[in-house]
Amino acid sequence: MTFVQFSEELHLGHAVIDAQHASLFDTVNQLHDDMLAGNSRQQLARVLAFLRSYTVEHFATEEAFMAETGYPGMALHKAQHDDLVRQVQELEEKHTAGSLTLSITVMVFLRDWLAQHISVDDRKLAQHLEAR
Ligand SMILES: [Fe+2]
Ligand SMILES: [Fe+2]
Going from the N-terminus, what domains does the chain have, and what CATH number goes with each? Predict the structure, then answer.
């Protein structure tokens, strides 16, 4: 079941960034499906770990583009990235410790964060990269 749709308006016209966003959405959908299916904590832990590492990789990619092109909004954009990484790390730690059960609230948080960040902040970055 598609929980987050990588809809047309979230495509930014930058091949690398769009492909990574599509993979991020796939991972969030995987997590959602595993949660709904009641799959094991180990399986959820694997997907959460992948989500964390892929998020870190994706953000590093965008930050490299920003650094290469002297993007003026880099500090603010990177602060948002750091904030999400911290939150995903916290989710993962709590999940590992057994003090967090993945819920629709967690999934909605991830979905809304990504949709908001992509449609506002990543869009500005994509426009900057395209204008160069
Ligand atoms: Fe970003
Ligand atoms: Fe992004």
Answer: 46-132 (1.20.120.50)
